[in-house]
């Protein structure tokens, strides 16, 4: 080989392989847990993890799993993979122990989330709430006014400008709840100051201090078969891997604990630099070893070094 061509060939290889290495795996390692929550498909902890359909909305930050929409970021406190639901606890949502004025709560129309079976209590509304309508239809459920009477026993109602044990005609049980055309629970439009959302009564329907407060959301991933991830993901997770994808094509990746990715599972993967551990050193990072492999290939030809394959 002409020695003058060697630098040019190495340059071409570098230009070719550096972009591939930068896009082959997530910049931040994918995690199987975020705080106390187990993370499985379709959720991911960072870019390149889980389903690309969920990535714009879900992320793990400071060991907290967050859902981000156009109205804010909300802490996810529970996930049911069996029921395809999650529970968020907006920081401005009222509970029995803490009541406050709340901004609008909303979901992005393009997101895979929609309201679940939560019960919304609209608080400190302009009375009477029996006249509250949306597009001409009554909003409040008259058969559930006892929930208003129950939560209004909480002393924190004074934080909403209400007296202790206020009249229940300033409260509305909004169930089943729905969002407006902007995808929001618009409290200002309904002339209410705050809201509480009940995810579960915790076997204590008459004790609001024991209720589990949160907004239950449903999610769907059946429409994500375009990414060919659903069928492969179970196999990947069964092998100890974490499901992810490779931008920009969003092709499926099984991210393995051994430090590299596979296209199927972590049982049958193959490390392309495994045979060069002795030459390059096990302390060298995977990306560096993969980057050095083409150079080693060229040098082996140029200097007639036996290629270890």
From TrEMBL:
Keywords: Glycoprotein, Membrane, Signal, Transmembrane, Transmembrane helix. Its EC number is 2.7.11.1. The keyword Flavoprotein does not apply. GO terms for cellular component: membrane. It is a single-pass membrane protein. It catalyses: L-seryl-[protein] + ATP = O-phospho-L-seryl-[protein] + ADP + H(+); L-threonyl-[protein] + ATP = O-phospho-L-threonyl-[protein] + ADP + H(+). One of its GO terms (molecular function) is protein serine/threonine kinase activity. This is non-specific serine/threonine protein kinase. It is found in: Membrane. Residues 254-266 form the EGF-like domain. PANTHER family: WALL-ASSOCIATED RECEPTOR KINASE CARBOXY-TERMINAL PROTEIN-RELATED, WALL-ASSOCIATED RECEPTOR KINASE-LIKE 15. It is an enzyme of class 2 (transferase).
């Amino acid at each position: 080989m002409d020695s003058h061509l060697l630098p040019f060939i190495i340059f071409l290889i570098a230009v070719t392989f550096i972009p591939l290495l930068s896009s082959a795996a997530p910049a931040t390692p994918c995690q199987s847990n975020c705080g106390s929550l187990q993370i499985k498909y379709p959720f991911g902890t960072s870019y390149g993890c889980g389903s690309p359909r969920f990535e714009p909305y879900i992320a793990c930050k400071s060991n907290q799993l967050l859902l981000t929409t156009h109205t804010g970021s909300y802490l996810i406190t529970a996930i049911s993979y069996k029921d395809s639901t999650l529970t968020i606890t907006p920081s401005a949502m009222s509970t029995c122990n803490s009541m406050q004025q709340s901004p609008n709560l909303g979901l992005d129309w393009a997101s895979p989330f929609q309201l679940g079976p939560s019960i919304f209590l609209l608080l400190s509304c302009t009375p009477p709430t029996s006249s509250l309508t949306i597009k001409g239809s009554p909003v409040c459920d008259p058969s559930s006014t006892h929930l208003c009477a129950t939560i209004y026993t909480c002393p924190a109602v004074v934080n909403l400008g209400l007296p202790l044990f206020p009249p229940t005609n300033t409260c509305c049980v909004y169930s089943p709840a729905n969002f407006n055309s902007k995808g929001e629970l618009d409290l200002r439009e309904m002339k209410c100051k705050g809201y509480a959302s009940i995810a579960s009564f915790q076997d204590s329907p008459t004790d609001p201090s024991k209720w589990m407060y949160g907004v239950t959301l449903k999610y769907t991933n059946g429409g994500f078969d375009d990414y060919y991830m659903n069928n492969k993901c179970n196999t990947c997770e069964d092998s100890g891997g974490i499901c992810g994808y490779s931008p920009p094509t969003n092709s499926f990746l099984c991210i393995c604990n051994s430090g590299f990715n596979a296209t199927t599972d972590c049982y049958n993967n193959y490390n392309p630099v495994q045979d060069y551990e002795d030459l390059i050193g096990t302390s060298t990072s995977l990306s560096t070893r993969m980057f050095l492999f083409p150079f080693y290939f060229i040098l082996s030809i140029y200097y007639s070094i036996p290629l270890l394959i």
